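Fill in residues.
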């Protein structure tokens, strides 16, 4: 059972705090990783946004009010690689995500959803036109999607908690 999520508006400050906390936890995770698991860690980093990511953020914001949080996110954060947390989590850069769209009829349908990432097994994550984050049931777009969080902030909180859980227990994440 997971602790209840307290919604926090995504702002430059809240994303900077998220980035700092998660980056520190990822760094702590890689210390002694090889001795603990018998192989070296992969890439575990949060990259800053590039110019193309910031341009994509502006375009997403103009497309739908539901993508406002996503636009704020891509203004502050680039690609995210958590290769060794659970089954791995990868969040696309804004420039990449802008071009990766999918229709999710259950998500409101006013604009195609934005594919924002995947896990190490090919499960896809998308932000729908309802602002919620959706996860594919299998490793393809055709597998269908289920709503997993009400907004991007809640999804980022699950990723944050997943890194801490993995550091503490070696157990996979919450996503």
């Amino acid at each position: 059972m997971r602790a209840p999520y307290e919604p926090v508006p995504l702002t430059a400050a809240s994303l900077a705090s998220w980035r700092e906390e998660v980056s520190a936890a990822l760094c702590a995770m890689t210390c002694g990783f090889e001795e603990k698991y018998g192989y070296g860690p992969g890439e575990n980093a949060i990259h800053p946004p590039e110019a193309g990511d910031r341009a994509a953020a502006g375009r997403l914001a103009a497309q739908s009010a539901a993508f406002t949080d996503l636009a704020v996110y891509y203004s502050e954060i680039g690609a995210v690689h958590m290769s060794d947390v659970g089954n791995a989590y990868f969040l696309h850069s804004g420039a990449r995500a802008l071009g990766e769209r999918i229709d999710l009829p259950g998500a409101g349908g006013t604009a195609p959803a934005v594919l924002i990432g995947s896990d190490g097994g090919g499960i896809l994550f998308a932000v729908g036109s309802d602002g919620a984050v959706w996860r594919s049931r299998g490793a393809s777009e055709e597998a269908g999607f289920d709503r997993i969080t009400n907004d991007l902030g809640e999804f980022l909180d699950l990723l944050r908690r997943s890194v801490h859980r993995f550091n503490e227990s070696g157990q996979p994440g919450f996503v």
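Helices lie at 12-30, 33-37, 51-63, 68-76, 94-98, 152-169.
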